[in-house]
Design a protein that fits this description.
about 475 residues, alpha/beta, Amidase signature (AS) enzymes, 11 strands
Length: about 475
């Protein structure tokens, strides 16, 4: 083995997948040293941000040592080999608690890994542990300090909300307690914490990523997704996780090849208005959005202002018929027998879902089909679409109605309903808190999202700034 170049832990936790992968492959960095840097970082800051529910240090050290031995023997498995990651605690991991943040599941220990966890382990990635989440990976939009684990806090300002429900994933990636994370998104639960915490959060075209072994929330809308620090890192993770093309009607892309490609001449639709029912974006978000558009124009993209065919508020209203009703159906038995053990947010959602009429649920599903068809018609004339992510800045943690307003009034749900791939990306800072926007692609075209997002990222300096709780 070549002589290892060991950097201080304080520097290693701020690495990227791309950088760490190269150094591990050429054996100038050991997976053992990289893991220890993240364990040190967890010890240093996680008592303040609570990104983890369970840290499996012994398990991770064993996996890192095995990765180091395999690589030294010439058996490098690919770009994630030896790299540490963590997953939202609604993912099953064999032999590890899967509480989903709930008293109802404190003793639940799965016997097999979720499909995506198994794929990452097979790639040689090193699992650190399970990340904080809203109870059952869902809720009503707020934190109420009534669960068995403390809520995750925003590492840019620990008095601020992380967004949900992949709370620990957003906080952990931003603060460097994990190199990358897996979350799940029904009406924004990957992208909302990515927005609040300044990380990259992406959901691909439905069917690209397996949901097997993830606690269901809403059968018709659930979709997993990664959170990373850079666009290239997101591409690397998705390239590993995508199902083989033989299992999906869409050909399997190679997203990392799109990183760094020019965007000269790309046609990009711009939605700068949520439509009636929701307010305009807060001034810092509007300013960041317009400045980011100028960057795209400077890079040669052709921008066209368009409007959503169905207002974001109507899309959210439809999701409030579909999501709670399906959650209530999935968790009906728990609600009947153990409602007293649930936190307020989960109980509130399930009770509301139990009251949704069948006619309203079906009407919402019909509207969902209209949203999908109309957005297809709009986006197919362009290479990509950009719009706001959240419409509000990060609220104070524990303050209603600030948290629920932040969660509800967004531009997230149109694309959950439509099934288009979409990435949340940081596009600046204001008052020490990250700003955000979304980049949306045609169905099956994650590659163009990566292309646009990486071009923007490479033209700006936002990824050089890291959270220090």
């Amino acid at each position: 083995m070549k002589k290892r170049e060991i950097k201080k832990s304080s520097e290693l936790w701020a690495t990227t997948i791309a950088s760490a992968s190269t150094r591990i492959a050429n054996q100038t960095l050991s997976p053992v040293d990289l893991l220890e840097a993240y364990l040190d970082r967890i010890e240093a800051v996680d008592t303040r941000i609570h990104s983890y529910i369970h840290v499996a240090a012994a398990h991770a050290r064993q996996a890192a040592a095995q990765a180091a031995a395999d690589i030294a023997a010439g058996h490098w498995k690919g770009p994630l080999h030896g790299l540490p990651f963590a997953v939202k605690d609604n993912y099953d991991v064999a032999g590890m608690p899967a509480t989903a943040g709930s008293r109802l599941r404190l003793n639940h220990v799965p016997s097999r890994d979720a499909n995506l966890v198994a794929r990452l382990k097979a790639s040689g990635a090193v699992l650190i542990g399970k990340l904080s989440t809203w109870e059952f990976g869902t809720g009503n939009g707020g934190e109420y300090f009534d669960l068995p684990f403390p809520p995750a806090r925003n590492p840019w300002n620990t008095d601020r909300f992380t967004g949900g429900s992949s709370t620990g994933a957003g906080a952990g990636v931003a603060a460097g307690t994990t190199l990358f994370a897996l979350g799940s998104d029904t009406t924004g639960s990957v992208r909302l914490p990515a927005a609040a915490c300044g990380a990259i959060g992406m959901i691909a075209t439905p069917g690209r990523l397996s949901t097997q072994g993830i606690l269901p929330n809403c059968w018709s809308l659930d979709i997993p997704g990664p959170l990373t620090w850079t666009v290239e890192d997101c591409a690397i993770v998705l390239d590993t996780l995508f199902e083989p093309s033989t299992k999906h009607e869409l050909p399997r892309p190679h997203l990392r090849r799109s990183v760094g490609l020019p965007i000269t001449g790309l046609r990009i639709a711009v939605v700068d208005d949520p439509g009636p029912g929701f307010p305009a974006a807060d001034p810092p978000l509007r300013k960041g959005f317009e400045q980011a558009l100028k960057v795209l124009e400077t890079l040669g993209a052709k921008l066209t202002r368009v409007k959503l065919p169905i207002p974001a508020a109507e899309c959210f209203a439809a999701s409030r018929m579909i999501g709670p009703a399906e959650s209530a159906s999935i968790h009906e038995q728990e609600l009947k027998e153990q409602a007293d053990l649930m936190g307020f947010a989960l109980r509130d959602k399930l009770l509301a879902g139990s009251l949704v009429r069948a006619v309203d649920y079906l009407a919402a599903q019909r509207l969902r089909r209209s949203v999908a068809a109309s957005l297809d018609t709009l986006i197919q004339d362009f290479d990509a679409l950009v719009t706001f992510g959240t419409l509000h800045m990060q609220p104070r943690l524990g303050v209603e109605p600030e948290m629920t307003t932040f969660t509800v009034e967004t531009m997230l749900t149109p694309f959950n309903l439509s099934g288009h791939p979409v990435m949340m990306q940081c596009n600046g800072f204001s008052g020490g808190l990250p700003l955000n926007w979304q980049i949306v692609g045609n169905r099956g075209d994650e590659a163009t999202i990566i292309r646009v997002a990486s071009a923007y990222e490479n033209a700006t300096t936002w990824r050089k700034k890291r959270a220090q709780p």
